[in-house]
Amino acid sequence: MNNSSYFIVAGLVLFAIVLIVYIFRYGGTKKIVVPATFTDEMMREILEKQVRFYRHLPPDEQQTFLKRVRYFLEHTKISAEKGAVVTDEDKVLIAASATIPLFHFKLWVYRNLTEVLVYPDYFDERFSTASEQRNVAGMVGSGALSSKMILSQQALRNGFLNMSAGNTAIHEFVHLIDKADGEVDGIPEYLIPKSLIEPWIKEMHKTISEIRSGESDIRAYAGTNEAEFFAVVSEYFFKKPALLKEDHPKLYHMLDQIYGVSELP
After folding, report:
1. Helices (H), the chain
2. What parts of the sequence cross the membrane (predicted)?
3. pLDDT digits (tens, 9 = 90+) for 53-112
């Protein structure tokens, strides 16, 4: 075998190895069969009624949003746990929560999530819904629960009420976005423009300090650490954009750049 033939064979072998790895990594996930009841009309009605972000999109982008919601439902299992009865509306709201923070990034999918577990109520750190100390509304799993998310059904639904200031499901999906670069540290490196990283870190630490000293109206939980700060202010950004822009214009502008939204209504 001459040198040119050797390189051709070696190239073909290398290509075959790469192809096999790709198939095992990305082609092995079975598409979930979405029930026939999930018509576009049904999902559109839920989104129109419950999801403010969707209502303010132009018609062509609403159609794209609907497709992204369906894609999530086709690729992420949603399971009822601890006696929860998960409705079609719950499933659409979970998919909408996943879609909102990444809507303006056309090629992004949640590679680090395979299943959302829905509990009927808040739970404690041992996943009990009966404990008097239950105060956890949502959690991104680790260890044995890696690639899973746990959501309180009550918190999910409350997040889409107008009177609610936050949205637990969006909060947890933001944690997944933050986690995608390997660290949950409040710096979503796959989204944030490199030129914005240093100013974002500076503003984040400044605002966390203000929260901890009681000098900010952003809820105290955001002062826990950088990861929780990013998740909480992201809730604020998507749930009450006009208020965030008025009260914290610098934070609003930075989040606008991170999420590529360009002025939420």
Report:
1. 3-26, 40-50, 52-55, 59-75, 88-99, 153-158, 168-179, 194-212, 226-239, 241-247, 249-259
2. 6-24
3. 999 999 999 999 999 999 999 999 999 999 999 999 999 999 999 999 999 988 788 988
The sign of the torsion formed by the CA atoms of 255, 208, 188, 192 equals: positive
Is residue 113 within 8 A of residue 147, CB to CB? The reply is yes
What's the rounded Cα separation, in Å, for the pair 112 and 120?
24
pTM score, whole prediction: 0.85
**Pairwise CA distance, residues 233 & 5, whole Å:** 59
Assess contact for 262 and 256: CB atoms under 8 A: yes
Amino acid at 68: R
Which of the 8 DSSP states describes residue 96? H
On whether the CB atoms of residues 46 and 89 are closer than 8 A, the answer is: yes
Average pLDDT over residues 180-196: 93
- Which amino acid does the sequence have at 246? E
Residue pair 151/114 in contact by the 8 Å Cβ criterion? no
List phi, psi (to 5°) of 227. Answer: -65, -45
